[in-house]
Write a structure and sequence with these properties.
mainly alpha; MetI-like fold; 318 residues; 14 helices
């Protein structure tokens, strides 16, 4: 297992390099000049050329990439073209807020999906099962930007239960922080919750018909031990894949959600940076998103071996 993990970690290096090449190329080929955005009303050609030289944007693209890569491998992702703040510092300031939002959304998604999906599978064709099926269709069909606006209109403007957006520091205002967290967390969690619930239900329905569960009951095991110790452990193997991918994709979903609810996380930073042609920040965020996918898939593979002892990543001698 250790050798497998090391191999996977080494494979992340060329993948990350390929991601940086693609992002670096595409963002510089996209329309728009970051210097014009940064300069504002300044249109003096000499001043604009001086800014391009200052930021290294007058160099050929391969030279720009080599310079950026040399600094990146040393932990320096450059400075923001808009604020001149170090990119790593800008992301570090906002990352805890995205982790708070994304972690809450994942917790809601996994917890509710396991409870309701299991109950729906154990009570097939019941009212709860029909509700779970209907919720699955609605959750997958509703885009998160539309759902977020509906939640704001209903719970913030009409019922005035939760604030419509913004952020409050948990250390100084914990209650206000939790109130502002509810709507964006539910918005971000709904789509993944619907998929997870459907997958949990389908996997358990397939497992519940297996012969080894009848054998476990024949041995005198209680129904809870049969469901938790045998059915769920085997039924969750395909579900773990989806959970892992959703953890890696949490930053992608947070981009829209944070923008709608004015949540000052990495997702909103990405939107502001894209509109401002802030190349270094966009490159760093995309690279971080790719790394989160790779780490989450590695964690899924490791978890597979724990859930199913038949899975082994050690190389067998021939």
């Amino acid at each position: 297992m250790t050798q497998y993990i090391l191999r996977r970690l080494l494979l992340m290096v060329p993948v990350a390099f390929l991601v940086t090449v693609i992002v670096f190329t595409l963002i510089r080929l996209s329309p728009g000049d970051p210097v014009l955005v940064f300069a504002g009303e300044e249109r003096d050609p000499e001043a604009l050329d001086a800014l391009r030289h200052q930021y290294g944007l007058d160099q050929p693209m391969p030279v720009q990439f080599v310079v950026w890569l040399e600094h990146a491998v040393q932990g320096d992702l450059g400075r923001s073209l808009r604020t001149r703040q170090p990119v790593l510092e800008a992301i570090t300031e906002r990352l805890p807020k995205t982790i708070e939002l994304g972690g809450t959304a994942i917790l809601i998604s996994i917890t509710v999906a396991l409870v309701v999906g299991t109950a729906a599978a154990l009570n097939r064709n019941s009212a709860l099962d029909l509700f779970a099926t209907g919720f699955t269709l609605a959750g997958v069909s509703l885009p998160n930007f539309y759902l977020g606006i509906i939640l704001i209109l209903l719970f913030a403007l009409a019922l005035r239960i939760f604030p419509p957006g913004g952020y409050a520091d948990f250390a100084s205002e914990p209650f206000d922080n939790l109130k502002r967290l509810v709507l964006p967390a539910v918005t971000l969690a709904t789509a993944s919750l619907a998929v997870n619930m459907r997958q949990v239900r389908s996997s358990l329905l397939d497992v519940l018909s297996q012969e080894y569960l009848r054998t476990a009951r024949a041995k005198g095991l209680g129904e809870r031990a049969v469901i938790v110790g045998h059915a769920m452990k085997n039924g969750l193997i395909p579900v773990v894949t989806i959970f892992g991918l959703q953890v890696g994709a949490i930053l992608d979903g947070a981009i829209i959600t944070e923008t709608i609810f004015f949540w000052p996380g990495v997702g909103r930073l990405a939107v502001d940076s894209i509109s401002g042609r802030d190349y270094p920040v966009v490159q760093a965020i995309v690279l971080m998103s790719a790394l989160s996918f790779m780490v989450s898939t590695l964690a899924v593979d490791i978890l597979y071996a724990w859930l199913d002892p038949r899975i082994s990543y050690t190389r067998r001698a021939t």
